Amino acid sequence: MDNIRGGSVFENTSRDKYLRFTATVVSKGRFCFLLPLILLMIFLLPFTVVAQDLTCSHLPKLMEAFHASHYAMKSATSTIKIHAVDQMIKRLDPSKTLLYESDLEKLKPLLLDVFVSAEKGDCTSLRVVYDLLVARARENEAIVKKILGPDFRSDKKVAMNINVDKRPYPKTMAEKQGLLKKIIQFQIENALPTGIDLATAKSRQIHRYELQTMRVVEQNPVQLIATSAEAFARALDPHTSYLSPKNLEDLQIQMKLSLEGIGAVLSSDTGFTVIEELIPGGGAEKTGLLKPKDKIIAVAQEGDMPIDVIDMDLRDVISMIRGKKGTRVTLTILRRQADRQDRFNITILRDQIDVKEQEAKITYEIRKVGGRQYRFGVIDLPSFYGGEKGGKSSYEDVKKILAEARRQQVDGIVLNLSRNGGGLLDEAVRLTGLFIGKGGIVAVKDSRGQVTLLANGSAAPVKEYDKRSIVASPAEDSRALYMGPLVVLTSRLSASASEIVAGALQDYRRAVIVGSDHTFGKGSVQSIIPLPWDLGAMKVTTGLYFLPGGKSTQKTGVMADVRLPGWFLLEDIGEAALDYPLPAQAIAPFLGVRGNAVPQWKSVDKPLIATLMSKSQGRVAKDAKFAKIIKENKEAADKKGIIQLDDYRKTMKKENGGKENETLPEQRQKAREQYAPFVNESVNILRDMVTLGAVTP
Fold it and tell me: What is the mean pLDDT of residues 430-446?
């Protein structure tokens, strides 16, 4: 679970092939939190009543508010400030291609001075930082233009370490030139299969670095203040962050899955805003005139002149396209035909959009054993969404799906949380109740040591827990419960709220957990605290959560009962691999806080798990798809992050076959095909549970 009212665990732990945002808007939600009065005073008094950007004068109170709200980090120690400096450098040069090693020695004291002086509202050091960044960006642009001159040749033997964390900063200009040359060769190799010639690929690379320079120049010293706030927040723990107004809006959209806009997924490609996908039912799709890969080159609000958006930052373009339901926006589109470029305007009526791709869904699998046919339901739940009365709710959607599954007379259910990175705590608690009925699901411990148990239905505390408060959701109608055989599919990507659900079902011995080894290991709770006057919000770690058995999933995750091969290399995926994770803790178990005197399901025991594991291992050993996964993981591990251009070229040819870049639906289909062996084996394990007759209630 990521938070009490919203969030995503993968903000900085993974990056898509394209930078994507949905061109939509959601009306600002209300976040209700019980804040200490002193925190409200810290926050509200220093600000003027006029909307403004985050300024240096805000930083002292903002830093103070982070400490006042945080679960563990209550004061700005020297260690936290040093961590803030490190986080700032990562944000300024995430690829380690901009700065020299010697630059770090110059920047570290300057940035430390920023966080020390910020307590007094003094950010003058950021001007020196900004000037250095601009100089280095212009230097990179010049280096790239020289590399891509007439003498440029591809070297198939060139190799590069793609693990940035294990790659050093360049010490000299010669080292930087060598690094940029390697990167450019890989970038060009990535572009050629899309059908463009070498000259065009070179031109695009040059423009990409011109844009990089432009973005650095645009990030003036004032904007670096927001970067400083983000770095300071990240120095407290991996999930505390400062949310700018745009980031806050994106997070609200992610949590609600119901939004207003034109209904298009956009990406940025060498200065152009590109339509990647049209959302079914959205205004853009309803026109019948737009297609994936169309480029948006200008945007006009109703009654206004169009504004050129070529080379504009993608976030800024999306802000212009988003708008309230019932309003209109006009886009100027550039479309490449076989022998020409077409340019035309299209006016779109903004409307309410449902993001169907992230909703819970069910599919059905058939297995035949001993002349009998079994029907199993597979529920795919990518996130725990919700948060607005009358809006989308993962709990309500799964409740409806389970009702459908009962009508279909399924023999068992697989709950697929393997791609679920978290979401809303309330949704996770109520959803778990659909599988166990009454009972405590999770405990949250705050910075004062107060423990609150979150339960479904009546859960009167026994004497041992008298000092703990209990928050119980309404008892679930018994007709809505599913008490049949249950498997939960997880992975290292299963985090936060999905770990609560999987961990609670495991502690109650309600389900068999299937996965590669363990889940992500995010056992902390975040609260969203809006800042006044449209300054954004703080996302702050305010507590740790604990499973019914008393353990936290922090850093360790939920261990799989039946282990499958890893989907990919797992070394750098998980809470323990992030910067400054909080340590794990434990509390007394609260499995006794349960209204069910006797479980309504057949408990999963160790002998059953051992049998299921043995049967699964036998199948996996004979499965060609798993054999390929194991082989590819071993080959990748042996390379230790080093990839050779010739190998990369062969992989690109094998995957793309010289065709144009895949569309988002095609990429999703490929992802489903990659996940298929794991889903299939989960169904096989479920079949074994049923045919063994050990879990029939």
Answer: 94
Residues 318, 349 within the same domain: yes
Residues 283-291, mean pLDDT to the nearest whole number: 88
| Residue 511 DSSP class | S
* H/E segment holding residue 487: strand 486-489
Asked if residue 521 and residue 463 are part of one domain, the reply reads yes
What gap in Å lies between CA 17 and CA 61, rounded to an integer? 37
Integer Cα distance of 161 and 639 in angstroms: 9
User: Measured between alpha carbons, how far is 376 from 367 in angstroms, rounded to an integer?
Assistant: 8
Give pLDDT, residue 130.
95
Residue 439 three-state SS: strand
Q: What is the pTM of this model?
A: 0.82
Q: Which of 604, 600, 602, 603 is nearest to 438 (CA)?
A: 600
- Cα–Cα distance, 217 to 228 (Å, whole number): 17
Is the pLDDT at 655 greater than 80? The verdict is: no
Domain count, the chain: 3
pLDDT in tens, 137-187: 999 999 999 999 998 988 878 888 878 888 899 999 999 999 999 999 888
Bridge partners of residue 380, in order along the sequence: 361, 416
- Indicate the residue type of 606: K
Q: For the chain, give the number of residues.
A: 697
Domain assignment of residue 502, yes or no? yes
DSSP code for 384: B
Residue 300, in any domain of the structure:
yes
Residue 331 is encoded by which pair of tokens? 């886009």
Joined tokens for residue 327: 């309003």
Query: Tell me, what CATH number does 660's domain have?
Result: 3.90.226.10
Co-location of 590 and 671 in the same domain: yes
Residue 640: DSSP 8-state = T
Q: How far does Cα 229 stand from its chain's mean position?
A: 21
- Choose among 218, 195, 214: nearest CA to 206: 214
Cα separation, 70 vs 65, whole angstroms = 8
468 and 377 both lie in a single domain = yes
The Cα–Cα gap between 55 and 602 comes to 59
The whole-angstrom separation of Cα 576 and Cα 490 is 18
In which domain, by residue range, is 97 found?
74-235
Mode of pairing for the β-strands spanning 451-456 and 469-473: parallel
Structure tokens at 180: 């940029």
d(CA 651, CA 430): 44
Assigned domain for 28 exists? no
Q: What is the DSSP letter of 275?
A: E
**pLDDT tens, residue by residue, 474-492:** 888 889 999 999 999 999 9
What is the predicted pLDDT for the residue at 608?
A: 96
What type of residue sits at position 581?
P
Q: What is the pLDDT of residues 495-524, one digit of tens each?
A: 999 999 999 999 999 999 999 899 999 999
Phi, psi of 539 (to 5 degrees): -105, 115
Query: Same domain for 459 and 447?
Result: yes
Supply 213's token pair.
């320079």
The domain boundary residue, chosen from 338, 354, 370: 354
Q: What is the DSSP letter of 322?
A: -
Domain shared by 470 and 431, yes or no:
yes
